[in-house]
Design brief:
alpha/beta, Dihydrodipicolinate Reductase, domain 2, 8-stranded mixed sheet, binds nicotinamide-adenine-dinucleotide
């Protein structure tokens, strides 16, 4: 699919990791490619970049109706259907998946609603969907190594794009997203729903109000066991997640942790990522599980021959303004779910996981539960107040957070407002996928992180309007 086997192994440098004989990366399309470039070549190439148009703060003309198409109706696609069908002004025009059964099941969810989308099931039908002239927004919920090529094609055909996370798997794809959005002036929002979690929004507001002083460090993670999911024969299409673990190194899923803390630290708006170092532990679980399953079921035999991304990936990012962020990813160990979300400043701190969430106003201690509740009420932003109101009217995933994210996207498009996250966020947060791998494969040496804003970060303004100063008039129609 788009890349021959030899190129894949050479470009990713996976020869040295014993993956040259592997078959599993082949389903990965652009998965694992690092542009074949060294960090030095990347730096030279970045110097030649210019910003064609600044998409930070960009507002597209308002849309009276938002006509939506969804690419990929596995697990995530239907979650969008469930939320979008309940939002005023949305018309779901098309659903596309290479598995006919999935796409028909997804359409069945809309029975009895005003939505009557056309369905597409061919391998390249997603292009036909993007070419339609009656679609405004393409939602991309295919496996993530397909996101960038679908998003670029959609923008090139005049569509705004809401891409699932991460938005890209290679550095070249990150740049393609930026350059296409700037050239076409179409939104590319990576739907980082963890930015809409109540405690993450609370701490964003508190940071904006100066409660933590100067925030100089954050810890974040997506640590949650996906062992059962990854080894399920019928959950993910074509075992694509397990193949990613066999084909890659570094952080495969950085944005859930990184999105909220990057927003708090005004990354791309007053600061930016400068460089990173990344370390992987060995894999102590996945190969063992593959072998255990292969002993009883031939289906797993190819997987038993693989080596996998280690149990723990740890990346440390240094920002240009001298601050630090650590990002972890552990999807195999049976430890409790942990996003960390630790925010540390000169006057105070916050910590989400392990639960319960905590706030410190200094004095080397966390505040009492009573004081926590008082602060929570005082600093709860308007957008969170709206969440409880919206969620009470429909059943939404991730505690209503997904509904809030979808509602904000549609509300901004209907009102012609800037979106909460822009293409530079998508590129910077997603770039940690290929760059952490590059560092791991190079004995954890530091790797520069490109400035996707090409200098505009110095003057860009924060754009997540958590106080709902404009818009907010879109209704739930459930
Ligand atoms: N933000 C979140 O909380 C969250 C949660 C789950 C998944 N995700 C992201 O959503 C994406 C999808 O994950 P999922 O769990 O739904 O995976 P999935 O395997 O269940 O669904 C992916 C779907 O894409 C389809 N597909 C593959 N190639 C296609 C093509 N060429 N054209 C059309 N359809 C194609 C597959 O048939 C499958 O139905 C991933 O990128 C994942 O990272 C995000």
């Amino acid at each position: 699919m788009g890349i021959n086997r030899r190129d894949f192994v050479v470009k990713t440098g996976l020869v040295g990791l014993g993956l040259a004989g592997s078959n599993l990366g082949q389903g990965s399309s652009s998965a694992g490619t690092l542009d074949g470039a060294t960090a030095g070549e990347d730096r030279q190439a970045d110097k030649a970049r210019v910003q064609r148009f600044n998409m930070s703060g960009f507002a597209a003309p308002p849309l009276a109706k938002v006509r939506v198409a969804i690419l990929g109706t596995g697990q995530r696609g239907p979650a969008y259907i469930h939320n979008l069908r309940n939002i005023e002004g949305v018309e779901i025009k098309a659903l596309c998946d290479i598995r006919p059964q999935k796409v028909h099941q997804a359409k069945a969810r809309l029975a009895g609603s005003p939505h009557d989308p056309d369905v597409y099931t061919g391998e390249d039908d997603w292009k036909k969907v993007c070419e339609r002239d009656d679609v405004d927004l393409v939602v991309v919920t295919t496996p993530w190594y397909l996101h960038a090529k679908m998003s670029v094609y959609a923008m090139n055909h005049g569509k705004h794009v809401a891409s699932e996370v991460p938005a890209a798997g290679t550095l070249d794809e990150c740049w393609q997203l930026v350059e296409t959005a700037e050239r076409t002036r179409r939104h590319l929002m990576m739907m980082e729903n963890y930015c809409y979690l109540p405690f993450q929004l609370l701490t964003l507001n508190m940071a904006r109000q100066g409660v933590f002083g100067d925030v100089f460090h954050a810890d974040c993670a997506y640590n949650t066991s996906k062992m059962a999911n990854n080894f399920s024969k019928n959950l993910y299409w074509n075992m694509w997640w397990l193949r990613q673990y066999a084909a890659r190194r570094g952080n495969l899923y950085p944005t859930h942790g990184l999105g909220p803390v990057s927003t708090i630290m005004n990354i791309n708006r007053g600061d930016k990522f400068e460089y990173l170092v990344s370390v992987d532990s060995d894999d102590f679980m996945m190969r063992a599980r593959a072998r255990e399953l292969a002993a009883k079921d031939d289906f797993f035999k190819p997987f038993a021959e693989e080596t996998y991304r280690g149990c723990m990936s740890v990346t440390t990012i240094r920002t240009t303004m001298g601050r630090t962020i650590t990002v972890q990813h552990d999807a195999s160990s049976p430890s409790p779910h942990n996003l960390i979300h630790g925010v540390y400043g000169t006057k105070g701190a916050a910590l989400y996981d392990p639960q319960p969430p905590r706030i410190s106003l200094g004095n080397h201690d966390w505040v009492s539960r009573e004081e926590f509740k008082r602060l929570e009420e005082k600093f709860k932003p308007e957008i969170t107040k709206r969440l409880s109101e919206l969620a009470s009217r429909t059943k939404a995933g991730h505690g209503g957070t997904d509904l809030l994210e979808n509602w904000r996207l549609i509300d901004c498009l209907r009102n012609g407002l800037p979106l909460d996250q822009d293409v530079y966020d998508a590129a910077a947060w997603s770039s940690i996928v290929p760059l952490s791998q590059q560092s791991v494969l190079n004995r954890s040496n530091s790797v520069d992180i490109p400035d996707f804003t090409v200098g505009a970060w110095k003057t860009n303004k924060p754009n997540m309007d958590i106080m709902l100063e404009s818009g907010g008039n879109t209704e739930i129609v459930a």
